Amino acid sequence: MRRVSGNMEKLKLNNMPIRYKLIIHFLLISILPAIGLGFLIGWTVDRIVEEQSNENTMQLIRKVNTAIESDVENLQKITYLISFDPGVQNFLKNGAGTVQSGPAAGNGESAEYNIRKFLQGFTTLSSEVAGIMLVNREGAFISNEMYARSGTQLTEESWYKQAAENKGIFLIVGHPYGRAVRSHADYKESEVVSAVRAIVNPETQVVQGVVLVDLKLRVIAETARDVTLGKTGYLTVVDNNGELIYAPQHPLLRKIPAGLFTEPSGITSETVDGRRLQLIYRTSPFTGWTTMGVFPMDESAYGVREITFNVVTFVFVVCMLGMTASFYLAYSISRPIGQLASFMSKAQSGDLTIRYWGNRSDEIGLLGRSFNTMLAQIGRLLSLTELQARQKREAELRSLQAHIKPHFLYNTLDTIHWMARSKGAEDIAEVVQSLSKLFRLGLSKGSDIIPLADELEHIHSYLKIQHVRYSSKLTYSIEVEPQLQELYVLKLLLQPMVENAIYHGIKERRGPGHLTIQVTERENTLYLTVSDDGAGIPADRLRELKQRLEAVGTREQEPAEPETPVQSAAGSGYGILNVQARIRLTYGAPYGLEIESEPDKGTVVTVRHPVVRENIPVKNVGRGG
Question: Which of 254, 298, 470, 553 gives the lowest tally of CB atoms within 10 Å of its CB?
């Protein structure tokens, strides 16, 4: 019962308008803590200010330690990611000559370049990283930012040996004083902190190499220098050997006495030049570094009075400003959210012309611009769908318009055929019979999808007519596996390509020419290839033809008119564009025409067509993506 009651209260809170939620939130996190803090400090300031000051300092130290640990942990993760990369492992085992890593392998890029690019990704994404060096057990190295001095054996460096001794455990070695590695950015040794990790073979436990990573000291400095303790106090960071990792320009304590840190955290004091300094420190168990707050003890008493005054003033100001800020911030945040919700509601009701107007750069502005982009994309998709439907209707209409009234033509051709035979003109009879088959198969009883055997018979009749016309100028061959003839294709696919090959290829060459038609099946796709050894297509006209074919079925296409004349030596007129449009609009962009040609060597036109084993009406055929 109590759980049900708690859920009901939570539900009511969720139903509350966001403006009221924000007002309550701002009041809770600003005014109420400020009032409570003022009363508590006014009552106990004389007794516990010093304790609170120390505790606050310790909290600051914890936050600095957490920030430093986060940066160092990031370095540790980088070393792990580098060690797991297959290209890096191959480099450590075999050297740079045999590395193949990532999708770039095999595309002409060297193995060393791939690893450099891989390492550069970390330095680009992590601004705190000054440089990364990868060293194998032979002393060969790869790095974008660092290099070794000539004649130096990196495996003899102290940092390499320390990493090898740790057997794969991440190690911070501090400032790289005296090492033989230099940086292209010319970082001073005091400006970076080095960390290493050995990469060990998991089976043999043999060290294959070492990853060296330099951390910019400014990352630690930016974390620590913004913290001030009193008027002259500061934070400093010391490594486990007592060496200063970070200190301000004029530190009160220049050298850390030996044995000063006896516990992981604590408070102690030290006298320097007759001045008593209070030291508050905490050692990070992860990095082994100690963050220490240093400030003069004589500032404490003055600080008590100053804190009391400041707190009272602060509480008063916060109470006055908190109320105003709470209402203003709640209004400024909730108002654009409400506007955006209203726009979305209108778009949901069908008004796709609505737009979000505003120049905000925050998350609300990002949502508004994304909302506008989404509506614009929906509009473009609707326009594209409408355009494709219109193009398909136009292509079907033009295809129907291209058909000749069949019955009268059939009767006339049959009459001419028998008259030629009765008079012994067998060659004329054969041409008339082929022409009759050509038109009879071209109509295909109104069907848009016909067996491949009928399409090949149609093109065979066409070639017989052309062979009679050009005699020894034209020879041809048709190559197709018998089982493929049972498949179905869109009708009138090959005739425009064969016509172009004859009129603009073989006819334009010197001497006889040969035309080949091949039909093959690969990976559930039917390939119909028309190749000739004719005059070919000039490079500029071939490029223009490819662009026009690729534009078919897209928004960039300018629909061709039926009477458009042939516009290039390749015959890039209505016929070949119509074939491309019919395939694209029926089966989608993956299918269509490909053209390759070289001047004086010939042209190859390939039609990619899906494998269709049943006579499915075109309007029901699923389109490919």
Answer: 254
Among 214, 259, 219, which Cα is nearest to 237's? 219
Contact partners, residue 83, CB within 8 Å, separation at least 6: 89, 197, 199, 211
CB 294 within 8 A of CB 257: no
What are the domain boundaries of the chain? 403-446, 447-620
Classify the phi-psi angles of 272: left when phi > 0, otherwise alpha if psi is within -120 to 50, otherwise beta: beta
User: How many angstroms separate the most distant Cα atoms in the chain?
Assistant: 136
Instruction: Render pLDDT for 277-329 as a digit per residue (tens, 0 to 9).
Output: 878 888 888 888 888 888 777 766 565 666 677 777 877 777 777 777 777 77
Q: Looking at the chain, how many residues does it have? A: 625
DSSP notation for 90-152: HHHHH-GGG---STTTTTT--HHHHHHHHHHHHHHH-TTEEEEEEEETTS-EEESSEEEPTT-
| Residue keyed to tokens 């061709």 | 560
Summarize pLDDT for 17-62 with one digit per residue, the tens: 776 777 777 777 767 777 777 777 766 766 666 776 777 778 888 8
- 178-192 tens-digit pLDDT: 888 888 888 888 888
Q: Minimal CA–CA distance to 304: which of 618, 587, 46, 575?
A: 46
The two three-digit tokens of residue 228, written as one number: 């001030």
Terminal CA-CA length for the chain: 55
* SS3 readout for 152-204: CCHHHCHHHHHHHHCCCCCEEEECCCCCCEEECCCCCHHHEEEEEEEEECCCC
Contact in structure between 537 and 568 (CB atoms under 8 Å): yes
Amino acid at 452: L
CA nearest 208: which of 118, 94, 99? 94
Q: Which helix (H) or strand (E) holds 34?
A: helix 32-84
Q: Please give the Cα distance from 341 to 356 (Å, whole number).
A: 10
pTM for this structure? 0.41
Best CA proximity match to 192, nearest among 66, 349, 75: 75
> Which amino acid, residue 381?
L
- The helix, strand and coil proportions of the chain, stated in percent and rounded to the nearest 5, come to 50, 20, 30
Q: Measured between alpha carbons, how far is 482 from 498 in angstroms, rounded to an integer?
A: 21
Strands 146-148 and 592-598 come out as unpaired
Q: Which residue in this structure is represented by tokens 């909730």?
A: 334
Tokens of 423: 């008079």
What residue has token string 């320009």?
249
Which token pair is 147?
Answer: 């290099």
Angle at 181 between CA 177 and CA 186, to 5 degrees: 85
pLDDT in tens, 593-622: 999 999 988 999 999 999 998 876 654 444
Q: Which of the residue ranges 202-216, 241-255, 384-398, 478-492 has the most confident prediction, judged by mean pLDDT?
A: 478-492
Integer Cα distance of 232 and 552 in angstroms: 75
Which tokens sit at 244? 């200063």
Structure tokens at 222: 């930016």
Long-range CB pairs of 285-288, under 8 A, 24+ apart, other chains included: 286/69, 286/72, 286/73, 287/65, 287/68, 287/69, 287/72, 287/172, 288/172, 288/239, 288/240
Asked if residues 537 and 599 have their Cβ atoms less than 8 Å apart, the reply is: yes
